[in-house]
Amino acid sequence: MLLGGGPLLAVGRIGDWAHALWAGGGLLVALLGIAWAMWQTSEVLVPPLTTPAVLASPALRGLREQLDAAPGYYFGSVATDVEGLLRHRRIAMEISRRMPTAGAAERAALERGLATAHRNIARTDPYLRWLLATAHAWIVREKLRKARRHTFLSAVLVITGAVVFLGATGR
Question: Transmembrane residues, as ranges (predicted)?
Fold first, then answer.
């Protein structure tokens, strides 16, 4: 009603500038509440980028607590924590960084080490993908909870604006 034809019909009942200002202010507050709700709700639809670094964010504290409570369930036998899950990737990166400057003998040893790291990465990848998918769902859930709180508060703004508007236009 507030954003439909109601304001147009009620404008004719405004008798002075004071009531016009109150009605305009109420309408503005209601519109701000609607814009706020739309903004916060649309934030849930923006897909978050989920990387291993995100696992350290405050929004995932609850997930980290679950991981710490039952590491075997989340990491199987390949690791005991997130750092262990990522260890072989860091090793492969370090080996790859050293290879261009290595001598022939060292290069052969580095290639064997890199092959081992790649085998270990292949073993840990399913766990990492599962963990990142879980973290992604957790982030979306937290964004949805935040949007719900903001939408409730914006509804209070809309109601307040409507009451002010209707109070200013009613006689």
Answer: 20-39, 151-170
